[in-house]
Amino acid sequence: xxxxxxxxxxxxxxxxxxxxxxxxxxxxxxxxxxxxxxxxxxxxxxxxxxxxxxxxxxxxxxxxxxxxxxxxxxxxxxxxxxxxxxxxxxxxxxx
Length: 95
Fold this sequence. Notes:
The chain is an all-alpha fold. The chain has 5 helices and no strands.
């Protein structure tokens, strides 16, 4: 969510590379984070088989995690973006 907020809402980001940046973030998750944690990036990929097999241990993390992560990523980006302005820009409202 942090990356998506950065490339889609920030005027300084180059629009032509938004898809490439999001794709590179997904590639980073697949190649590095996936093998380390063994988790899937798609919650439905974990929830579906767990429901079919009636194995609910640890399933809550696939429901709560994406929601908390999206909120945390959006808040972190908004915080960093709001602190990026100089004090004179904040008082005058200039962008």
